[in-house]
Specification:
single chain; alpha+beta; three-stranded antiparallel β-sheet; 5 helices; 12% strand
Length: 124
């Protein structure tokens, strides 16, 4: 569907609820929480703002990657799956050392349509 057609569809929905302030408020809140609007700032072009719906999971992800876990985030459901980094870097060695095999895990992230992989920072 072309951009103009998509815009027409969106405007049609907004037009149908134009007199209902509750419905308009819902649309506004959805857009504010789910659409990243990047403001152009001449002083800092590298600034990035996450939608507020990610606020609750930021600390969890930070703690996990600090502990050496690779985090997979489903941006649609905000579900997180954490896996020890060793299972990706050297699965055979990790299995020998821990007895944990990647094949034994019931991993959900490969089935997610969208996913974001967040890896731990290098130790140095």
């Amino acid at each position: 569907m072309s951009t103009n057609n998509l815009l027409d569809e969106i405007l049609l929905i907004v037009h149908t609820v134009k007199d209902d302030s509750r419905e308009l408020q819902k649309i506004l809140e959805f857009l504010q929480e789910n659409i990243i609007i990047e403001e152009q700032d001449d002083d800092d072009d590298d600034e990035f703002t996450l939608p507020s719906r990610y606020d609750k999971i930021i600390k969890s992800i930070a703690g996990s990657i600090d502990a050496g876990l690779v985090c997979f985030l489903n941006p649609d459901t905000l579900e997180i799956e954490e896996i020890p980094q060793g299972l990706f870097d050297d699965p055979e060695e990790t299995e020998i050392q821990t007895g944990l095999s990647i094949n034994e895990l019931d991993l959900k992230y490969p089935e997610w349509e969208k996913r974001i992989c967040i890896e731990p920072l290098e130790s140095d």
